Write a sequence for this structure.
């Protein structure tokens, strides 16, 4: 689960990770009131969407309107808020369609001496979280990783112990942080690592991490992702979810307990088991097709869930064919067959449908499908199924 920058900074503040003062605003009037409340001459109006690159991004409505605006007075704050709220911001991370801005964060401005990068992720190979820092802040870190990987410094840490003093000193040396700023970093770095562990984050990125003219170390940006599988341990985080940011079909699938990720292709996939879903996508690609989604209906899917899954797949205008690949273990082939027939009645199959069923109650399932009046292309195995759906959607 992702959250907005303003929400992340609120959590940072409580966890002792230094951030600047700021207020969220949903209207231009509120933004001006926030500016007055902050009482700082320089303030920054920042669009709040679940995507980065806002500083360089512009709105669809006005190619001069950037997603992050430095303002010197109330009129500039009003103009920036009016230019952003209700508008669609396109950044390198939103894709062409952009994202609608529903609120801005009005934050005190600060005197930036240096812009660094800091990120924490779980390093699966090392089986530990890893703190990454770089002198190249404010820039796309992917570019730094590709072109100048020697400028990214990493320290793994034990989640039970946290980041240790010698590790902070090592990183400060590499980043050229000395004196009062190094003292501030010695508080900042362990605090953000503790935050990552305490909140079960899967990613925590601060770009830029700034050193101010008076040697403070401050998180100027906050991009946080929580591990959804651990959310049950953090009930107070749930209200931070902004459903308007979720892909509508993914939100709908999640409400039905389905694992669904929308993709760019045109072949809808209905599969049970994450491993089988991955290999189905691979084999579709191998035979020259493009999957429209990843969908794992799960081991114990019931008829309502599978019917809902079909409705989501068929509701995607890009979907030009559906491949059902089920290995009935706990889920029975008869349940899937019944859901196919139900989906045929409620939404109707206007696109080709290839079905490959194996496993529990397969004979009965096949019989049900043979007796219904839906046009089905039967497949004998996964390769046969992939070839048939690719041919049918070409
Ligand atoms: P994004 O990563 O989406 O572009 P950031 O929060 O990193 O958004 O902001 C972009 C840039 O705007 C930063 O690199 C920084 O130079 C500037 N900036 C952001 N917040 C402030 C602030 N409070 N004071 C001064 N400059 C800021
Ligand atoms: Mg940033």
């Amino acid at each position: 689960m992702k959250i907005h920058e303003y929400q992340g900074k609120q959590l940072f503040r409580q966890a002792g990770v230094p951030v600047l003062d700021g207020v969220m605003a949903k209207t231009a009037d509120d933004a001006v009131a926030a500016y007055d409340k902050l009482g700082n001459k320089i303030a920054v109006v920042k669009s709040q969407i679940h995507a980065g690159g806002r500083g360089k991004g512009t709105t669809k409505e006005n190619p001069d309107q950037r997603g992050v605006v430095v303002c010197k007075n109330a009129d500039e704050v009003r103009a920036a808020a009016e230019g952003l709220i209700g508008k669609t911001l396109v950044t390198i991370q939103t894709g062409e369609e952009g994202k609608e801005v529903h609120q801005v964060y009005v934050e005190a401005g600060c005197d930036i001496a240096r812009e660094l990068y800091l990120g924490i992720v779980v390093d699966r190979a090392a089986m530990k979280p890893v703190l990454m820092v770089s002198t190249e802040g404010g820039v796309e870190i992917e570019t730094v990783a590709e072109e100048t990987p020697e400028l990214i410094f990493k320290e793994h840490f034990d989640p039970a112990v946290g980041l240790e003093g010698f590790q902070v000193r090592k990183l400060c040396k590499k980043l050229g942080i000395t004196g009062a700023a190094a003292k501030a970093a010695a508080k900042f770095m362990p605090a953000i690592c503790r935050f990552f562990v305490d909140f079960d984050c899967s990613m925590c990125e601060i770009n830029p991490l700034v050193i101010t003219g008076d040697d403070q170390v401050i998180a100027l940006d906050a991009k946080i992702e929580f591990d959804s599988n651990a959310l049950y341990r953090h009930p107070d985080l749930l209200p931070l979810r902004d459903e308007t940011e979720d892909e509508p079909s993914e939100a709908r699938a999640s409400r039905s307990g389905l694992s669904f990720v929308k993709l760019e292709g045109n072949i809808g996939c209905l599969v049970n088991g994450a491993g089988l879903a991955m290999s189905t996508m691979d084999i579709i690609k191998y035979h020259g097709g493009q999957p429209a989604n990843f969908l794992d209906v799960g081991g114990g899917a019931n008829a309502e869930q599978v019917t809902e899954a079909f409705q989501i797949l068929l509701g995607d205008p890009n979907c030009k064919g559906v491949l059902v690949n089920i290995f009935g273990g706990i889920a029975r082939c008869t349940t899937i067959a019944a859901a196919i027939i139900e989906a045929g009645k409620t939404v109707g199959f206007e696109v080709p449908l290839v079905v490959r069923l194996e496993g529990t109650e397969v004979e009965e399932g096949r019989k049900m499908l043979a007796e219904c009046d839906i046009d089905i292309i039967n497949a004998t195995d996964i390769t046969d199924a992939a070839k048939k759906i690719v041919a049918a959607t070409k």
Observations:
- The mean pLDDT is 93.
- The pocket of magnesium ion (ligand 2) is lined by residues 52, 207, 221 (CB under 6 Å).
